[in-house]
Design brief:
alpha/beta; seven-stranded mixed beta sheet; 16 helices; three-stranded antiparallel beta sheet
């Protein structure tokens, strides 16, 4: 949701946690000698390339990558394909020199590791899809053709990821909205009831469906108290050596710079998504994940929220990595793992189809990004690429949905009514449930996509 960007902009600017901060018992290696940095000209301006020390940093709660694992993708992608994917999707178009080079027939990625400072991945002279053994999900072309009497989503395993948590965590997540006493909506609850309604429809159409979150409880076993030391170190590394412990009585930036706020954010925005990623990649192993969210415009103070005249939707795929994000070793590794797996080849057509279904079902206009953290992707104007933790660490195609503006007055009234059948009087006219329209849009998009490419087998 758009409000997420506003509330968490400070966190995006904070440097990543070190490996030592994530695992206190881990030995801390001695600092590497200061490298000689050769300035690189970019568009007539001298830009210093990132030092190896910077390239060794990790994102918050990130894990040091096993760079050798990328060798399984050697000779599976051509130079032309690699350059096109980087240029058109995965990077943000800024001219800063990336921490990799493409020389002749190999991609050379800087690791930041003083022992193995570079990994080289040999490219292929001809295009060919990566082997099925490198992934758990099925490419569209690998699904069996539909028989005449087959359901359109047969043989497809779909994981539904209801965004956020809700319940007793909704206020902490800043996903609780109330304009009158004794009434409220929570994004975590709305996404869960949407997932349950969508799951039933998808099962009727032949899909096997798994829910990444099944109730209003976290998937992660960690809680904010477990992450206080990590939050403290994060603040100290960002130039705040003695941060305040609690945000009681504080507002604005003062609240953001407390150990309590940072530890809560590490809990519900980082640890929780890592736990879901582990569940998706190691247990569920689906063919695709649909992340279900509801959007919002800035509503101001939670105690006196404001309605927004805007109402819109958009769909996200993974991409648009900034130079600062690519300095983080785990982020750089995860981007290349997705690129080499050709996930984008499946993800973008899926997103286009679902965006088309949502537009018809909801009647919402497309949101237009004006910030550099997203770029257009695919054919549908509502589909954008962004680098989010969820659509990066799930090792399969991910379609990330953001329909409706929750603090749009009419939408708020529709969401207060919950999920219902038929129509009811809302804002002076008979309307369907917003949840029902959401579900219908996703279903119509998926059916359109899979029926188009899984035509019945010829006798």
């Amino acid at each position: 949701m758009l409000r997420k960007i506003m509330f968490f902009s400070l966190h995006a600017a904070l440097p990543s946690l070190s490996a030592a901060a994530q695992s206190p018992a881990a030995p801390v290696p001695p600092p590497a000698p200061a490298p000689i940095v050769v300035p690189t000209p970019v568009g007539g301006v001298i830009v210093n390339a990132p030092s190896p020390a910077r390239l060794a940093r990790l994102s918050p709660l990130g894990t040091a990558p096993d760079w050798k694992a990328l060798q399984v993708f050697a000779k599976t992608i051509t130079r032309v394909e690699l350059e096109a994917a980087l240029r058109d999707l995965y990077t943000d178009g800024t001219p800063f020199p990336p921490p990799w080079t493409i020389e002749g027939g190999a991609l050379r990625i800087q690791t930041g590791d003083p022992v193995t400072p570079e990994v080289s991945i040999e490219l292929s002279p001809r295009a060919e899809p990566p082997a099925a053994s490198t992934r758990f999900w099925h490419r569209l072309a690998e699904l069996p053709r539909l028989k005449d009497d087959a359901k359109p989503l047969a043989d497809l395993h779909i994981a539904l990821d209801p965004g956020h948590i809700g319940g007793s965590f909704a206020t902490m997540e800043e996903r609780y909205l109330s304009f009158q006493p004794n009434e409220s909506i929570q994004e975590g609850y709305l996404s869960l009831i949407t997932a349950n309604a969508l799951a039933e429809r998808l099962k009727e159409l032949g899909a096997y469906v798994s829910l990444v979150r099944e109730n209003q409880e976290p998937v992660t076993k960690q809680r904010p108290a477990d992450l206080q030391q990590a939050a403290l170190k994060l603040l100290q590394e960002s130039g705040f050596p003695t941060p305040v412990e609690s945000y009681n009585g504080l507002t604005g930036d003062a609240k953001l710079l407390t150990v309590q706020w940072q530890s809560e954010k590490l809990f519900y925005r980082v640890s929780e998504i890592h736990a879901r990623g582990q569940k998706v990649n190691q247990t569920i192993k689906p063919d695709l994940v649909i992340c279900l969210h509801y959007n919002a415009e800035d509503w101001g103070a939670a105690t006196s929220p404001q309605y927004s005249p805007k109402n819109h939707f958009h769909v996200l795929v993974n991409g648009c990595y900034s130079p600062l994000e690519l300095e983080q070793a785990d982020v750089r590794f995860e981007m290349f793992r997705r690129l080499f797996s050709r996930i984008h080849e499946e993800e973008i057509p899926l997103a286009d189809a679902v965006a088309g279904g949502l537009r018809v079902a909801t009647g919402l206009p497309s949101y237009v990004y004006t910030t550099p953290n997203a770029r257009r992707a695919g054919k549908d104007e509502a589909v954008y690429a962004r680098n989010l933790l969820a659509n990066r660490i799930y090792d399969c195609p991910v379609v990330y949905l953001e329909p409706y503006v929750m603090n749009h007055e009419e939408t708020y009234r529709r969401l207060l009514a919950g999920h219902f059948l038929g129509r009811t009087l809302i804002a002076g006219r008979l309307q369907r449930s917003a949840v029902a329209d959401y579900v219908r849009g996703v279903v119509d998009g998926l059916v359109t996509h899979y029926q188009k490419f899984r035509k019945p087998a010829q006798p």
